[in-house]
Amino acid sequence: MVDKAESLVRDYSLLEFRLDYLKTPATFFPKLKKFLDMHPEATAIATCRRAVNGGRFRGTVAAQLAILLKAAACGCQFVDIELETADALKAADIEKLRRCSTLVLSHHDFKHTKRLQETFGRMREHPADVFKIVTTATSLYDNVVMMKFLQEHSDRFQMVGLCMGEQGIISRVLGLRAGSVFTFAAATPGEETAPGQISARELRDIYRIEQVDAATRVYGVAGDPISQSLSPVMLNAAFRRENVNAVFLGLHAKSIEDLLNCVQNIPIQGLSVTMPYKQEIVAELDNSDALTQKVGACNTVVRSAEGKLYGFNTDVAGIVGPLEQKLALSGARILVIGAGGAARAAVFGLKARGAEVSILNRTAANAQRLARQSGAKTIKRTDLKKYQFDAIINATPLGMGTSKHTPLEQKEIKAKYVFDLVYNPLETRFLKLAQAEGANTISGIEMFVTQGARQFEIWTGKPAPLDEMRYVVTRELQRMTAEPASASTNGHGRKLKT
Ligand code: NAP
């Protein structure tokens, strides 16, 4: 624990020591004292959370008190006790803790974000220096509840508040702005202790938490699921590079109502919309561009100051843009494989550029419907050998992740260009087959980055830093391929937080 603190303290001067994770805290104290003597710049919080409160300490309240008093004597400036411990202690014992440290009185709710006022009322029966309330977000709106609660009390009390859970990210990033005096994060990536929890490095480097202020504009990618989305990494990097005072969050929305409620209350100035809400959001928009209406799907929303929602479809630009750089689209013969959302964006976008589009899809009826709506043709797989294409676009999920499937066999690839919209892995099997067949290839990254760049431009009015965006997405995908386990989460609680 001290080694880890040593490695962190230069970058993060506020460290929480979870003494309940130690088998024998007594043997730790000399090391803790030495560390704190050596690092006067460090501010240490000592916590010895009891098992009944979600920690690991199995001793009595009296033993917990003794450990915390020793930690304070070693130089920990803050000690943390839960409301239940405070209820069990005598007033004189609480005073003893306060005489030698700053007392954080905490309450954790591992299931909900409910009854905050009632809990806070109970907490205020005890004398404490900082009141910490940590709940679990089961909806995006729970963040609104937490932040309104912080705003209401933070001018009179020192408050710390955040929501755990993947849906609680808004409160982790915006909690300081709402009045939380500090926040918590995992010490290092990979030590995240709950879905959606962020490491200290991510909070600082990706979300730039120290720069978030009242003027910071808030954007996010909304979908279900959302944990694997690369949009936060890409758009936060773009905001940073272009010095835009904005932050971009992953919004795990379980319903469109929850999402919109949150958008209007935070407020969130812009949304990137992903599965499964691209179609559903269209009915909620006050207005949208012609492409959104044609495609019937919206992936970009702008919220006006009055709360009106305007929709755009940048997926079309994400497909047409990279292709257009390689070949003239007017009159080009293009095969689109798939008839879902991405295929619709491709077909409508390419038809609008004058391309001759053929659609091949697993379910023929879906291909026929899209062809009727867009004026494109359908094609049977058995007829492919009769045609040569300028470009083939894969708009199916075939080849995603570890899937070995490809939408076509090598001998069926007769095209100058092959564009695989799948971007994870970076180089799909389909692209490898296409190269072996002599075709030029375009990776799905190009679509992802181009549609994101267009979003950036719509939201900020500035040209997007395309190279930076491509670089961070590629790096993140390489990292995800190299350490797939780091995307997973472990249990609740950790040895050392910063
Ligand atoms: P979607 O709406 O669910 O459509 C999926 C399409 O793929 C449907 O036409 C479906 O055919 C077909 N399909 C699904 N499984 C198949 C299988 N096992 N064999 C053959 N065909 C199959 O999905 P979407 O939103 O269009 O996305 C499709 C893919 O595009 C995604 O998986 C993603 O990899 C990629 N994408 C990339 C980006 C980017 O930025 N690069 C953005 C969006 C999407 P049926 O009609 O028969 O069901």
Walk me through this protein's architecture.
With 498 residues, this protein is an alpha/beta fold. It folds into four domains: 1-104, Aldolase class I (TIM Barrel); 109-214, TIM Barrel; 218-313, 3-Layer(aba) Sandwich (Rossmann fold), CATH 3.40.50; 316-449, NAD(P)-binding Rossmann-like Domain (Rossmann fold, 3-Layer(aba) Sandwich). Helix content is 38%, strand content 18%. Helix 7 (141-153) runs parallel beside helix 8 (169-178), helix 13 (315-324) crosses helix 14 and helix 17 packs across helix 18. The longest helix is centred in the last third of the chain and has 17 residues, at 444-460. The model is unreliable at 485-498 (pLDDT under 50). The site of NADP nicotinamide-adenine-dinucleotide phosphate has 23 residues, from helix 14 and helix 17.
SSE layout and pairing:
Layout: H1 2-8, E1 14-18, H2 25-38, E2 43-47, H3 61-74, E3 78-82, H4 83-88, H5 91-100, E4 102-108, H6 116-123, E5 130-136, H7 141-153, E6 159-164, H8 169-178, H9 200-206, E7 217-223, H10 231-241, E8 246-252, H11 256-265, E9 270-273, E10 287-288, H12 290-295, E11 300-303, E12 309-312, H13 315-324, E13 333-337, H14 341-352, E14 356-360, H15 364-374, E15 377-378, E16 389-394, E17 415-420, H16 429-436, E18 440-442, H17 444-460, H18 466-482, E19 496-497
Parallel strand pairs: 1-2, 2-3, 3-4, 4-5, 5-6, 7-8, 7-9, 10-12, 13-14, 13-16, 14-15, 16-17, 17-18
Antiparallel strand pairs: 1-19, 9-11, 11-12
Helix pairs in contact: 2-3, 3-5, 7-8, 10-17, 10-18, 13-14, 13-17, 17-18
Bound molecules: NADP nicotinamide-adenine-dinucleotide phosphate.
